[in-house]
UniProtKB/TrEMBL annotation, chains A, B, C:
<feature type="binding site">
    <location>
        <position position="225"/>
    </location>
    <ligand>
        <name>L-aspartate</name>
    </ligand>
</feature>
<feature type="binding site">
    <location>
        <position position="85"/>
    </location>
    <ligand>
        <name>L-aspartate</name>
    </ligand>
</feature>
<dbReference type="Pfam" id="PF00185">
    <property type="entry name" value="OTCace"/>
</dbReference>
<feature type="binding site">
    <location>
        <position position="58"/>
    </location>
    <ligand>
        <name>carbamoyl phosphate</name>
    </ligand>
</feature>
<protein>
    <recommendedName>
        <fullName>Aspartate carbamoyltransferase</fullName>
        <ecNumber>2.1.3.2</ecNumber>
    </recommendedName>
</protein>
<dbReference type="InterPro" id="IPR006130">
    <property type="entry name" value="Asp/Orn_carbamoylTrfase"/>
</dbReference>
<feature type="domain" description="Aspartate/ornithine carbamoyltransferase carbamoyl-P binding">
    <location>
        <begin position="5"/>
        <end position="149"/>
    </location>
</feature>
<comment type="pathway">
    <text>Pyrimidine metabolism; UMP biosynthesis via de novo pathway; (S)-dihydroorotate from bicarbonate: step 2/3.</text>
</comment>
<feature type="binding site">
    <location>
        <position position="140"/>
    </location>
    <ligand>
        <name>carbamoyl phosphate</name>
    </ligand>
</feature>
<dbReference type="GO" id="GO:0004070">
    <property type="term" value="F:aspartate carbamoyltransferase activity"/>
</dbReference>
<feature type="binding site">
    <location>
        <position position="137"/>
    </location>
    <ligand>
        <name>carbamoyl phosphate</name>
    </ligand>
</feature>
<dbReference type="Pfam" id="PF02729">
    <property type="entry name" value="OTCace_N"/>
</dbReference>
<keyword id="KW-0808">Transferase</keyword>
<dbReference type="GO" id="GO:0006520">
    <property type="term" value="P:amino acid metabolic process"/>
</dbReference>
<feature type="binding site">
    <location>
        <position position="107"/>
    </location>
    <ligand>
        <name>carbamoyl phosphate</name>
    </ligand>
</feature>
<dbReference type="InterPro" id="IPR036901">
    <property type="entry name" value="Asp/Orn_carbamoylTrfase_sf"/>
</dbReference>
<feature type="binding site">
    <location>
        <position position="57"/>
    </location>
    <ligand>
        <name>carbamoyl phosphate</name>
    </ligand>
</feature>
Length: 308, 308, 308
């Protein structure tokens, strides 16, 4: 994997490459969560957070990952920047490159912006997709896989369910790609009709129109955030209504395997897509996901900067 | 004091604990104001500024304090963060904790948010209140006490006046608690009726309805910022009008003791609560307060992180 | 130049001083663009970015310059700060000074704010103008001169053209001052009548009302950004219309000397003031300007902090 320079989506990885990133993140976990000292493998390198959508959480995770490898971090707030003055993403990147920056962590509202920049910038430029449109969020998928692997051994025996707003979810799309690549046994999705994704109706994904049957026999339950601004368009009157049909409650979770783990990419809407008792319960690995996120981002930054 | 982990308000301190923080801040003063080199006592620790109200001034003071002890600083802008997406303060803290952050400096508009988080997070989690609602601003009170002690020796002989918008002032409330704890001789407040605080009408606080008589014989005059947005509600037509009755002018200041010191928590409204000639005059210790603020915050961070 | 503490505009430099900064920036270029390791000449110093206008690009350039000299950087966002609460620039500076900050990089919408602060603060306080109103942007002029000198030797033989919105341009004003100081052979400006600057109609500046004739025989073509918000006031219907008359196209550029260089302070409006083919063409030195900008800002910070 030492030749990976651009993590635009899961597609750029082969199975060995994905597993190598998971292995490396495992090794870095203590440093990522500050139980072990920071490293200096990226000393002298400058990592730019180039965020066109607000996300303090993901930005902070990348910042900590970069700093715990010894890199400098520049937060280039794209809302108040020259991009807001009409400059293209490519010109913004060229400017930062001319200033001696080394890696670009990009979040963008458009599906294709990150991949397009990667093409123009050329294959030697280190680029990490930190979430683009509804299409890709590869580091989220990797941290999810790292978390699953820690709790469940063999991929081929696993039944994984993704629940909620599949339609608008880059988390779902990248997870599905990675879980297939890793060879997961059975992939399930569950969503109300208006939140189902037409592009994810392949025969190898088993789709459910109700949460109860979908949960039966699952090893992993991945709950997606319901974005409030999308509820109206989806004809869902409010969060309470959604919770009654789709909220992950302790009663519903009991339909899954007894040792099933519960995941959520955060930030959670307690009482909308997930019951607080489940979020804080013994099957929840939600906070482990957060710590694994820093470790995965360290592994990815190290790799795209050729320091792995 | 090495067991203090949460400075939610002055109440958590006993007299010895408060004096220990003042002593430690005195010892750190050169490092705080960059006349002496930065220290590395907090190397490897990450301090998060979690500000739900804008305050570049206080945030910068905490940032410098943390960095001059060798800590990393994360600015978690709560306005544009996951909290804005509906996440609770507790969930935001849990996320940052899972990322390996070590101390939380919190400013919040609500009176109770910081104390409530401290309760949920548990007594081992390092939390510093950087200003909450109208109730508490303990590091401001400590830096004020540090400044007073530097100029005036014995607490029991001192007459201290707090002037202005007492009603909405967390600075006044924390100062009153700390000055009582330290055993100040006489505590006075002075405010127009609409800005007087019902909760601070204890018999041991002498209240005045006019500034002149309140100033007589005072050793310390603490002027509060008049927040413009509150002037209308308080039936104060404008800043000029307020200044005529309540502005600290050289003529009025002459009613206090000749060696009285003048304090202000900043930012000042010159010509509203204070005359520029007083703010810049020989009795003003306002800029000393600012330098002492960094020293106090170093002492507090060191202590709550168990590095004192 | 070791006694320069305040770079408020080019006026404060003499010719030797300007050349010393260019020489020093040349020497620092590898460190500025991260091809050589960071330095520690400013270790223990704190540089404040005090920006009253948004400019992520210039702020990032100064941040990288300061950090690559080992300084700490504080971003004091003046939009959300105590200044927004009515505090004066002088009081904000006094506060930061009391916190032990060492140099102030200031961008301000007013022509005079930076110079006025420099006067009040006193000649020992390190202040750098990062752009003030329409009057001054001295580090831009220095990086432009550094770029020109790299490509063209002798100043006296050069013909330099500045094209576009001269009237509102601090870049134009500082460049004209510096190019005169360096003894440039011929200075030309070209602009539509509404964007011509009355204060720059000296006999030694040759003004043109059309781009074609202005370009003839030029060694350097400096294109200015057309600020969209000014197009209406200037009776310019839209960017396309402006481009037809004033856009720097390959055809027009062919009227200049064959080895003429093309400059732009960024961010560019491709298709408005400059053709993408020119911006990316072999005569463009626009990205060199960006790298030189970090080097110039390192040289300036080193100098105003007495570390040169």
């Amino acid at each position: 994997m030492t030749d990976l320079r651009q993590l635009t989506d899961i597609d750029v990885l082969d199975r060995a490459g994905a597993l190598a990133l998971l292995d490396r993140a495992d090794a870095l976990h203590g440093h990522a969560t500050a139980r072990a000292p920071a490293l200096d493998r990226l000393a002298g390198r400058t990592v730019v957070n180039l965020f066109f959508e607000n996300s303090t959480r993901t930005r902070t995770s990348f910042s900590l990952a970069a700093r715990r490898l010894g890199a400098e971090v520049i937060d280039f707030n794209a809302h108040t920047s020259s991009t807001a003055k009409g400059e293209s993403l490519v010109d913004t990147w060229r400017t930062l490159d001319a200033m001696g920056c080394h890696a670009y962590v990009i979040r963008h509202g458009s599906d294709d912006a990150v991949a397009e920049l990667a093409k123009v910038a050329g294959p030697e430029v280190a680029i990490v997709n930190a979430g683009s449109g509804a299409s890709a969020h590869p580091t989220q998928a990797l941290l999810d896989a790292m978390t699953i692997r820690h709790h469940k051994g063999d991929w081929s025996g696993l039944r994984v369910l993704i629940v909620g707003d599949i339609r608008h979810s880059r988390v779902a799309r990248s997870n599905i790609k990675l879980l297939r690549l890793l060879g997961v046994g059975e992939l399930r999705t569950a969503a109300p009709p208006s939140l189902r994704a037409a592009d994810l109706s392949d025969p190898d994904i088993v789709h459910f129109d109700a949460l109860g049957p979908a949960l039966e026999g699952c090893d992993v339950v991945m709950t997606l955030r319901l974005q409030k601004e999308r509820m109206q368009g989806a004809n869902i009157p409010d969060g309470e209504h959604y919770f009654r049909q789709w909220g992950l409650t302790p009663e519903r979770l009991a339909l899954a395997k007894p040792d099933a783990i519960v995941m959520h990419p955060g930030p959670m809407n307690r009482g909308t897509e997930i019951d607080g008792a489940v979020a804080d319960g013994p099957q929840s690995v939600i906070l482990e996901q957060v710590g694994n996120g820093v470790a995965i981002r360290m592994a990815v930054l190290e790799t795209v900067l050729g320091a792995a």
